[in-house]
């Protein structure tokens, strides 16, 4: 009989330990905001510090030569003043000093685009994409567009026309351009993406998103379309479906860095974490 208190004490400790383990397991389960059948999962802590933004100017694990930085800065100032040829000369010098730095190549591509030299624009967008395969600004969409123009899938100058949406501040003008592009070139997915931003009616926006997704979009455009679809579904009370779209995008093989970050931020927002 003297052993009974000790036995009861031992049993109580075992029971308490089991209860603690179960409680911790429940906490872990409650911490998960997304999980799929392939074993991918995201917890609150995984998305806690996401901001939805990527700073392309910060190059991780890479020291940029000060001279290359200065040339790049001067080139951007010249480009903004419309002195494209001088800007190109400076950018060329920067790429020779720092050939593994994507930014000058990106600006070379954009400057050639502004000059109407689509061949060189495509050449340097390709180089930028080689250096930054997970995405760099609008490179994925530029490649999709300019390659499509070269192949005859899209009319020449379409990408420049599309960029007018970004370059104008007037929402009505943006909407007018997006509608024109989707009507005249319905297979151009980025046009549907822009239209989905600009329409006020939720049903019409979702229809534009689905049309964009059906046009074999580039990775950047596809990601934005899916994120916007998730937001609309969440607004309609379909939170689990929205979470599934975002989680699948985050773990997809072709997701860009910017879309991964934005999808995580969106997931954090809709789950209220």
Question: How is this fold's topology laid out?
Answer:
Elements: H1 4-31, E1 32-35, E2 41-43, H2 44-47, H3 66-80, H4 84-97, H5 102-115, H6 118-131, H7 139-150, H8 158-167, H9 171-184, H10 189-198, H11 202-213, H12 219-235, H13 239-250, H14 257-270
Antiparallel strand pairs: 1-2
Helix pairs in contact: 3-4, 4-5, 5-6, 6-7, 8-9, 9-10, 10-11, 10-12, 11-12, 12-13, 12-14, 13-14
Task: Give your account of this protein's structure.
This protein is mainly α. It is built from 14 helices and two strands. A hairpin with a 5-residue loop joins strand 1 (32-35) and strand 2 (41-43). Helix 9 (171-184) runs antiparallel to helix 10 and helix 12 (219-235) packs parallel to helix 14. It starts with a helix and ends with a helix.
Largest sheet, spatial ordering of strands? 1-2
Count of DSSP H/I helices: 14
Helical fraction? 55-70%
In N-to-C order, the SSE pattern is HEEHHHHHHHHHHHHH
Characterize the largest beta sheet: strand count, sense, and whether it forms a barrel.
Answer: 2 strands, antiparallel
User: How would you classify the helix and strand content by structural class?
Assistant: mainly alpha
Rounded to the nearest angstrom, the distance between the terminal CA atoms is 54 Å
The low-pLDDT segments are 1-28
Mean pLDDT: 89
Alpha-carbon Rg, integer: 25 Å
- Shape, per Cα inertia axes: globular
Fraction of residues in β-strands: under 5%
Based on DSSP secondary structure assignment, what is the total number of beta strands?
2
